[in-house]
Amino acid sequence: MVANKLFTKPQSFLKSFGELSEGPLDLSWDSRTHEKGQAFIALKGDNFDGSNFIEEVVARGCPLVIGAKNLRDIYPQTVFIEVSDTIKYIQELAHLHLLDWKKEDKIVIGITGSNGKTTTKEMLAHLLNAAHPGKVHKTPGNFNNHLGVPFTLLGLENEHSIAIVEMGTNHPGEIKFLCELACPNNGIITNIGPAHLEFFRTVENVFAEKRELLDFVKGKGFFVINRDDPYLGRVNPFKGLISFGEKNIAHNQINLDTPEGKVTLLNKHLLGRHNFENLALAFLLSYYLFPQERDKFIVAASNFTPLKNRSSWIEKGEKKFFLDAYNANPVSMKASLNAFVKFTETNNISLKDCLFILGDMNELGKDAELFHQNMGSHLKDLSAINVAFLGRYSGSYGKGYKNASKIYLNKLGLEKDWPKLLKSFKYFFLKGSRSLQLESLVDIT
Question: Do 144 and 286 fall within a single domain?
Answer without folding.
Answer: yes
